[in-house]
Amino acid sequence: MGLIDIIKKITQKGGKGMKKIEINPMTRLEGHGKITIFLDEQGNVENAFLQVVEFMGYEKFLIGMPIEEVPRTVQTICGV
Amino acid sequence: MSKPKLAYYLAGGCGGCDIAVVDLSETLVDVALQLDIVFWAPTVADAKYKDLEAMPDGSIDVGLVSGNVRNSEHEHIVKVMRQKCKVLIAFGICASCGGIKGLVNLHTTEQLLDKAYINTFSTDNPEKILPQTTVVVDGKYELTLPSLMDARPLDQVVKVDYYVGGCPPYHEHIGKAFMALLSGQLPPSGSWITMGKAVCEVCNRNPVLQGKSKKFATTVKRTIDGPPSEDGCLLEEGYLCLGPVTQGDCGSKCPSANVPCRGCGGPIPGVKDFGLRAISAIASMLDNEELVDQIPDPVHLFYRYTLPSSFLGKKIKR
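Structure tokens for the assembled complex are given below, as produced in the milestone run.
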């Protein structure tokens, strides 16, 4: 069964009005992501959004660091 | 007897600690067979946050948290982890002391967002749009994001039973920690899981281990100033190595590759503020006071992995 079928099956049982399905967190990857799916009254997918819920800030806090120290520092942006 | 249940949560980290667990290779197979992994998000297992929230309180034997606590989602899940887990371990230096990502505490959230989303030469954002905690798209699709906060180590949010240092923890050390965990041979609650030796004590470059005495550094060098000698002490030669104050469970991997230690292993036992101890140690090994002014970028050197857990904490903004 595909994802769409699963969603249809869920919503056939559901009530009326717009439904929201949140997949949080996205798994089997590094980095935090969230998927939000909006369904219409018929239970079909009306819109879907992927959000990256993390913010780090390396752009700012690296400023002033000796250049030779940067490679071993930025490797922690993603350690996978 | 049923297998011990394990949960693993990656908060504000990079996944390097997860990869370090995988680096156990064959040992991981032995360890994994003895464990029932009920939650490992987001990297390994498919369980979602609501699955973790639905588990009975205290039903998980061991919980590992890697990464610091940086936003409201991390804070919430870390608190859930504490409720569900009998033993909670801060795994890696981010969870234990704040980590490299803890350097964000040098700046305000506004400064960080401004640099990342507006004032970078490669950024094209004329409307100056910044991430919002709530946004309604096309008037009907409501989306939310966690709110940002200063970085905190795990123990500033919940009670922590054990700490494991390293960025990431060295895999052989993880193996020993897991074996200690499985056999119940753990130190008193609140301890670091470590062999208790500093990097210098396991470093082949240490002159003391070769029966010689340590000399003062008469110059301050950066690694771009040229390679160090083959087997001499990096500190003696002027490369500011934090080996004297750092836990050496890594087996002194960086100095053996000509790279001075930066303290990712965390403080040696008995030290609360790593940065202060490091400043004190380095200052005592320099030949004269003039050399202090030559230390490049002290805050990024001494507090690289431990700023949020230090007495400076989030008090200093640049």
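The interface with chain B takes residues 18, 23-33, 36, 38, 47, 49, 51, 53-57, 59-61, 63-69, 72-73, 75-80 of chain A (CB under 8 Å). Confidence is low (pLDDT under 50) at residues 12-16 of chain A. Further analysis is deferred to the final report.
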